[in-house]
Structure formats: structure tokens, C-alpha cells
Here is the input.
Amino acid sequence: MPTQRVTVIYPNKDGSKFDFGYYTQKHVPWVERLVGKSIEVRRGISSAAGAPAPYVCIATIAASIEEFQAVFARHGAEILADVSNYTNIEPIVQFDEILPEGESLKMKAAS
Here is the structure.
């Protein structure tokens, strides 16, 4: 089975707030314990053109879709209830598949 990841994206919108201290010191370690997997956190700096970053934060959970769904079925309400402690942005959850090295080159050549 291909390697999967769960990505949580926080779009940058007017009036949005995001407390990275709370997020990285409390929320992320707590969710890592629940999932039993690591979470990589990225803070948006800017777009390539120098405009504000389109996303305030992108977090990648090193878990399969099944693992995430099992944890979310048990703890989803708690996890979502904690979101208001660090942001007023509604997170977007995306399931990803990591392509094997060289696969992207094959796909580009085929198009």
C-alpha cells in the first residue's frame, strides 16, 4: 500500500488569528500522543511573489487514513473542541499519498 499522510491546512484569511505557542506546545503534542505518530508543523511566511502566505499553518501527520480515522472516531470531538484555543480558522483536512521517488517524473513525462 502506498505511504499515506494526513495534512491539516489553515487558510490565511482576513481577521484570522493563530497562536503557534499553544499549537506547538499543547495541541500538537497531545494529538501526537493520541495518534501515536509524529506531526510536522509549517508556518507560512509568504508566497513566492512576496504576498502574504496563502496558508497560516500546514501540519502533516505521519499516519495512514485508517489510523487517523480510527483516532478521530474516538477523539474527534475533543480535538475539534481544542481548535478554538489556538485559532479562529476552520481547518481543512486532506488525505495524501506519497509518490515513490521518480514517480512524479513519470507522471510529468506521460502528460
